[in-house]
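SEVERITY: medium
COMPONENT: batch folding queue
REPORTER: lab tech (J.R.)

DESCRIPTION
The queue accepted two submissions in a row. Attaching both inputs and their returned structure tokens so the on-call engineer can compare them side by side.

ATTACHMENT 1
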Amino acid sequence: MKRLAVLLLAGLALLAQEPPSEAEEEHLRQVVGEAGSSPIEFMRAVETHLKKYPNSARRADLERALVTAAMDARDNRRIRLYGEKVLERETDDPQILERVARALLVSDDKESSERALKYAQALERTGRLIGKALVYQARATGNLGKLDEAAALARRSYEASPNAESAREIARWLARQDKNDEAVRHLADAFAFPDPAVTDAERAADRARLGEIWRKSHDSESGLGDAILAAYDRVLALAAARRAKALEIDPNSQAALPMEFTLPALEGPPLKMASLQGKVIVVDFWATWCGPCRAQKPLYDQVKKRFRDEPRVVFLAVSTDEDRTLVEPFLKQNQWPRQVYFEDGLARLLRISSIPTTLILGKTGEVFSRLNGYVPDRFVDMLTERVKEALAE
């Protein structure tokens, strides 16, 4: 309902624009106001307004509001109707291109498929949702009778974004060509995929279709279980390979806990937080543009000196600067130590909303204490006391 409320407010906000006439302004205000919290009533209200004022200066904005409401309501008829109108003016909106192509493919008739193919190709050109763009192209192309080309497009979709939908699409067009052994392999992959987008009904349909295609070649379902297990192993290996590749690109892509992070260093090797497990970690989140960080620095250094002979306590200076090139000259100018790390997503995970923030991670890696900002006359003693408390746990 939250998104709908925003949508309704957006509709009312249109009234703030200079209206073509007082009568039109009043009518729009009335019908939108009477729509209440129902997306269906909102769409009907705006359609009523456009019927009465077909040449409204606000028509483009109202049609965009209609397609947004239709997408929320999963109203394929209105998604097609108003989505295509919006796309006549805004040809590169990836969200609308995706939803219109999908809505058109509810039907497999030639005319709808030709339109869907056009929008799916436009979606691919945006560089967004490539897997979806290719799977819709495959479906539209297959509906147009080009089965080999459809299977090839579906394979490209699976390569771009392996999931149950793209695997199912490959199987669909292979089965249409009586390539049953290949079709079973890909349909088994679809069945085995741990895809949260797959409904129970879709999984049941995949299972039924698997049995149907398997029996065509084997006269019974004997051996199908082994084929499904093999698919499970393939999907598991694929998921592991994808995770490994993601970690190569971004070692923190899968990190959900502070101790799972790897922090890039200004110089030297990156720091694996897991290597500090069992220690009390004091993390100073700062930035070059932060005046209070400069004022806090000598106080923070006093605390560090108090624990310099305590190997169980580690102090980390973590920069939150978006432009990392500013850090080195800043350190040189202010004669600060160069042992600095970059937050690389850790600040977001820990919900650091103000700078400076000092966080203490306990020996288990969980947040033990947080100091947002600092109180000059109490900071040293407060931080010292909290570090001692963390050590005592």
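ATTACHMENT 2
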Amino acid sequence: MMSERPFTRVLDLIRHAGLRPTRQRLALAKLLFENGDRHVTAEMLHAEAEAAGVNVSLATVYNTLHQFTAAGLLREILADGTRSYFDTNISEHHHFFFEASGQLRDIPAERVTVTELPPPPEGTTVTRVDVIVRVRDGRPPPKR
């Protein structure tokens, strides 16, 4: 049996999401989706692209990540107020956020129970609840 061409999987993924498969989208999708679930920032993906010889600007990386998110291929996570993380795992789940390193780790949805939500504002519907549990190493924080 012949093996798949290098971009077959990501080409199908992009087309199925209704996006045009440009060279840059294909290259970034290959980096994002071919190595299991992960959390990346635009800067991390840009550095990976450069290391892989993909000539793409940081602005294009940002635009592509937001296009992939809008198409339902990624989930954006605002963990620390200063940067967005993009998650290739779009299933229902939550996150630990490691404050010192800025890393995220998945928490299975069944491990978190939200027992009561306030009613949403009139005319709106709750679409998802994201829980981010912030953690740091066991030492107490410095006194100020």
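NOTES FROM REPORTER
The first strand starts at residue 39 and ends at 40.
No errors were logged for either attachment.
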